[in-house]
Amino acid sequence: MTNTRCERFFLFFSILFVAHTAYGDVSYSVPEEMKRGSVIGNIAKDLGLDVNRLSSRKARIDTEGNRKRYCDINLNTGELIVAERIDREGLCGKKSAPCVLQFQLLLENPLKVYSLLLDIQDINDNSPTFENGQIELELLESTDLGRRFPLESAHDPDIGANSVQHYQLSENEYFALEMYTQVDRNAYPELVLKKPLDRENQADHFLTLSGVDGGRPFRSGAASIHIHVLDANDNVPVFGQSVYKVSVQENSPRGTVLVKLNATDLDSGIYGEISYSFNHMPDKMRGVVEVDHVTGEVKVMVALDYEQASSHELDLQAKDGGGQSSHCKLIIDVIDVNDNSPVIVVKSTTSIVPEDASPGTMVALLHVYDLDTGTSGWVTCKISDDVPFKLVSEVKNYFMLVIDGVLDREKCPHYNITMTAVDAGTPPLFSSKTVAITITDVNDNPPIFKHSDYSIKFVENQPQGTLVIKVRAEDADEGQNARILYSLPEDAASHLSINAETGEIFTLRPFDYESSTHFHVQVMARDEGRPSFTSTCTVQIFIADQNDNAPVVLYPVQLDGYLAHDIVPRAAPADYLVTKVVVIDADAGYNAWLSYRIVKATQPNLFSIGLHCGEIRTLRPFAEGEEIKQTLIISVSDNGLESLSATATVNIIIEDGLPIIDELVAHDTDKLHGNSDLTLYLIMALAAMSSLFLVLIIAVVYMRLCRYRYICFNTLQKDDQYNSFLTTGSWKRDFRFGSDFVDLDMLNKRGTSLHVGGHSATRAKLLVPHKL
């Protein structure tokens, strides 16, 4: 093609481009047989696209089905270039209509599809050819002048001016060449006799027929004509129709008769015998249809496909035994049937999607089409309703699979989405395609402890590093987002440590029940996501007491070199209160429940001591002559599993002349009251032991309230103070524990020194330190 023709083509393209850009299409006129890499046009510029974003938007040329991609886009320049050899004749055949190839320019982020049309222009790249290079004719020497003999026409795949325009016959004195135009406007060369034949003078004539196209420069092809002069063959075959037109459904079975040709010849004998054949058979139709040489039946041998070609034009001839022939044309219109299922092509897919992807995000791009036409080519596409995705179509035949809801990997980490395309044919055909999508995790779940509160009873004096409790939290996320680290607050770091990965809590030092009975710790669990999430749980550690403290004697005061003594009247009756041994035990519960017994006495069977109250009373009245000074060794032991004990020495002076104090004499009602109290406390103890939880609660409340109550038995003040422990059988208002000292009311009233029930010239107070 010359430069002038190229300019004319691109001028034509400019007109097409202006007409189609309003609809989002772009068209180019392209001459066939351009070299690979040749520039067709700058599609980015023509569509107003940013060249710098072509790569990031994954710009590409797309086709339907398995068709070749004859053009491509240069992502650096935005130019549309030739990618494959473009042969108009191979693509569109002999059709005179425009040969247009349709492609799509796909861009993502966001999705945009442009329709790209290439109008393939013909160039004169083919020469005319004759099916048979040697044409044989047998003519009677008596043939009338002006008799016309149809000849085979030349075939040129080019169209328009580049196809066969005229024929030439080599110079001779007997024959001329004229054109005959049929009703379908197809022209055939005919040989016309212009001089009588004389077999005796010249029995054979050799001519050359040339077909010439209208290209610049022109091309031509030639066939040899051999004319043999005979004695008799007066008539040529004549077809009943010059053009036969039939319609047949595609996929018709082998052997289907399309048409039966009918030609007649008035001659008899061998000159009247007619043979049918194709004058010129296109390569694509060879073996597809055949003609019976004798009957003239044209049959389908290979199923016709409407999608490959909707019509076919074939040239046939009828030749008699004398070599004379005539021609006709057969036009086959192929009727489309719904024989193609919809085609689903996944053009782009994002198989991994984060669970926080927003609705409307495209995860797959589908090209859905049907090769059938009419209603059989109408396609609908759908997916199941129970997935958080939907199909959106903004461009014909293209569907975007987008997110249509909230993704939650913890509920569904994988989706196999099946897309089904159904055409509108009868019966409808369908096809499906499955796209697998994996939802990736984002840190959207905090750690959750199995329990919000943990409670444990932990025995005191356990060595450093002893496991206290193991807490555990779970995170519904995965990977690093689900990895949990545990920690303790700073105020717990002095006595507890935690394994950051396992949640095991250990002691940093032994616990002392007497210092603290309860720990309240908050444990934090933090995941390693970005950003991270945290949660907390509460651990209640209740310290259980061990019997690790021996009883301590507060009265009588046991000082080096000094021992207090108590005075009792000689006239005291039996069960007369002489004094009371005051002992405390820093432990709690049974470990602080004290028992008293006399292990040694100056005179046996003279005094008794209350088992749990420590009150020393007379067993009988004193007799004359009994020793004035009596010494008792009292053993005080607690009720721990491994009992601890202490001893106290009590000096008692029997003095004459002291009055009897009625308040110090035990009465029956007091005894009954004491027995009643003992029974009550035993019942309470048994009830408390039946439920560890109840004992725990009662102990906490009891220890906090006991500091304000009157006690008769040993008391233990918790949290760095002595809390009271009441023992059974305590005599009413024997002793009163204040915050700073023990005030012995009887001693104060009587003015005696460090005893009860006797006389003294002085008054004293027993001081008890606030802290041990």
From TrEMBL:
Keywords: Calcium, Cell adhesion, Cell membrane, Glycoprotein, Membrane, Repeat, Signal, Transmembrane, Transmembrane helix. InterPro entries: Cadherin-like_dom, Cadherin-like_sf, Cadherin_CS, Cadherin_N, Protocadherin/Cadherin-CA. It is a single-pass type I membrane protein. It comes from the Eukaryota. The keyword Cell membrane applies. One of its GO terms (biological process) is anatomical structure morphogenesis. Residues 29-130, 131-239, 240-344, 345-449, 450-553, 568-656 form the Cadherin domain. GO terms for cellular component: plasma membrane. It is found in: Cell membrane. One of its GO terms (molecular function) is calcium ion binding. It holds the Pfam family Cadherin_2. Residues 1-24 form the signal peptide. SMART domains: CA. The chain crosses the membrane at residues 678-702. CDD domains: Cadherin_repeat (cd11304). The keyword 4Fe-4S does not apply. Potential calcium-dependent cell-adhesion protein. May be involved in the establishment and maintenance of specific neuronal connections in the brain. This is Cadherin domain-containing protein.
